[in-house]
Amino acid sequence: MGKRTGILFLSVVVTTLAADNPVTFHKDVLPILQKNCQSCHRPGQIAPMSFLSYQSTRPWAKAMKTAVATRKMPPWFADPQFGHFANDRSLKASEIDIIAKWADAGAPEGDVNDAPVPANWPADGWDIQPDVIVQGPATVVPARPKSDVIEWSFVTVPSGINEDTWITSMEIRPSDPSVTHHICVYFKPHTGDVKYNTPVWADRPRDDQGNALPEAAGINGKGIPRSITEGSNGIEGCYVPGQRSQDYRDYRAAKLFKAGTDIVFQLHYTPNGKDTTDRPRIGFTTAKEQPQRTYVSIGISSPSDAKSFAIPPNNGNWESPPAEATFLEDAELVWMSPHMHVRGKEMTYRFTYPDGRTETILSVPRYDFNWQLGYELAAPIKVPKGTRITITAHFDNSANNKFNPDPNRTVYYGDMSWEEMMFPFFSVVVDKNVNPRTVIRENRGRVGGGA
Q: What's the pLDDT at 208?
């Protein structure tokens, strides 16, 4: 009886302590939101609700519990077996438990004096606090275009930057994310024949449902005059759902933006059933002095011709031909971002070093087109000259894929979301004297540092 009484007494003490120390918003929940959620859940960001205050968060308590318990939120898809990432937003089991207990207790506010110091987010919804803002072109996106397809367009605008400038971070912001598939930018030396704010695109041969015909597979970018991006280092940065900025300051690195350089916007919009106009902005932070290293953004592709890239109907695990490149310069890998469309299933990045060693540096076993995340390494990986990067991917063209618009047709490489793409991105830092165009040789034969 004594032992049983002791157990009962201990249970009463634990229950009393729990009652005396309830989970509250300001003391327990807000620190988690600041670290893992507020980057998206604040005004001007992609999330539809703000988690900056108790008043704006309280109505969502039960939904938050469900979202974190199922690990739907925060979105994070990297396999923890490979790599450590500075921007890992996934929650620990203890943090999930705190949010669940808070919701179950009726979402109590607690004492406001227990709250941490508010996070110092940049003004006006920016991820960075820009020193320079460049206004992009206005594009009318009709509720339903006549052709049912809005092809990618390229539009050149003047930068307004009239002296050589070292850019230390960049953020691309659409004004209407609901219709924006992606926005990428090139930095192009000014030429006298440039036509500002004039869209240029190539019409692809398509069937009556808007699907690219086999002869159109892999022609994205072709049909566009070379002069549109000629002289650039390739794609310097992109907005896609889930990311819109990159910061080079942590690596004591920058990109050189030469005086008078123009900016070419590559625009891809998907109508959402209502007429709208999007006008993106680009924000830059800048350095007063030349840094010691250059930040280089790179995109490579699998073979994209119809013979190499054709996903069979009802195939739930089709393996794409790989995207491969060889490093021609010593570099440090700092960032990676898989890119596929709605049938994308998984993507894996691997290195083969000059001594024959192989290393998996990123595995995304559950790719989600709605959240195309960038994965920033906690510590850069040294990449000696001669290293080969091989990136593989699988696609789900079956009825089990809830995002698949039609599992009964062959899918080719193309620009639209209902077509497919295998175009992984990654970023490296190199010595300031290295030409960004000569960092890699893509194994399709192209030498360069951009996409």
A: 76
